[in-house]
Amino acid sequence: MHLTPKHILLAGATGLTGEHLLDRLLNEPTVARVLAPTRRPLAEHPHLVNPVGALESLLPQLEGPVDVAFCCLGSTLRQAGSQEAFRAVDLELVLAFARRARELGARHFIVISALGANPASSIFYNKVKGEMETALKAMDWPQLTIARPSLLMGPRSEFRLGERLAEPFMRWVPGKYRGIEACRLARALWRLALEEEDGTRIIESDDLRRLGR
After folding, report:
1. What is the model's pLDDT at position 162?
2. What is the DSSP letter of 176?
3. What average pLDDT does this structure show over 13-42?
4. N or C: fewer beta carbons within 10 Å in the chain?
C-alpha cells in the first residue's frame, strides 16, 4: 500500500544525504510541511519550518503533527573526537530524536544506519550502529525502516581523505558493498516513506541503489 505523508520531521538536513532529501521533500507537491531543526539556518521555503540551534535543546520545542520522521544524523570517530562523543550523536541523539518523533505522532521512522551494523561487532562504529538499531526496534514502532548504505559518495563540505581515496574503488565492488551516491539514497528514502508495511524493514545498500534509480 502506498501513502502520501504530508507532515515530515527531518534531522540531519545539512548533512550529505539530508541536503538531498530536504530538497526532494520541499519539491514534493504532496508534502505540506517539513520540520527540519538545524544548527545553522536553511534557505527559506513556504513549506519549511526551521528551528535553529542544537538539536538536543530544540527537541522539546518541536511541534506536530508528524506523519513520517527521517533521521539522517551521523558522524565519524574523527569528527566526534572520541568514542563517547560519537556514541552521544550516533546512538543517544538518534534515540532522543526518535522518542520525540513518536510523541509528535509519527507512525513511520526512517533512519540511516550503516552496512555491517551489529551490536556484537568488534568494530566500534558498527557496534554503535547495531546498538542504535536494537534500541529503535525496542520502541515498537508501527513502521520502522532501517537503511544500511555502503560508503556514501558525493561532494562534502569537509574533506575526508579516507573516503576520497576509497570512492573510486567503491564504485566497482559488487553487491551491497558498492558505494552509493547520496542523491540516490535520498530518492530511496523518500520512496520507502511512501510504502506502508507494518513492522521493521532493513534495507541493504544494493536494494537502496535499486530504489534510488
Report:
1. 47
2. G
3. 97
4. N
| Nearest residue to 16 via CA among 191, 158, 202 | 158
Question: Other CB atoms closer than 10 Å to residue 196's CB: what's the count?
Answer: 12
Q: How far apart are CA 47 and CA 37, in angstroms?
A: 14
Q: Which three cell numbers stand for residue 200?
A: 521493521
Average model confidence (pLDDT) across the chain = 90
Could you tell me the CA-to-CA distances from 135 to 84, 92, 185 in Å, in that order? 17, 10, 23
Which structural domains are found in the chain, ordered by start? Answer: 7-211 (3.40.50.720)
Instruction: Supply the pTM of this predicted model.
Output: 0.89
Specify the residue for cell string 522539546. Answer: 60
**Dist. CA 178–CA 184, nearest whole Å:** 13
Beta carbons within 8 Å of 136's beta carbon, 6+ residues apart:
94, 95, 98, 109, 111, 144, 146
Cis peptide before 168 (omega within 30 of 0): no
DSSP 52-70: BS-HHHHGGG-----SEEE
Cα within 13 Å of Cα(190), Cβ side: 24
Band of the pLDDT at 175, cuts 50, 70, 90? Answer: low
> Which of 183, 135, 152, 140 is CA-nearest to residue 74?
152
Asked if 13 and 72 count as a contact pair (C-beta separation under 8 A), the reply is yes
The C-alpha atoms of residue 138 and residue 136 are separated, in whole angstroms, by: 5
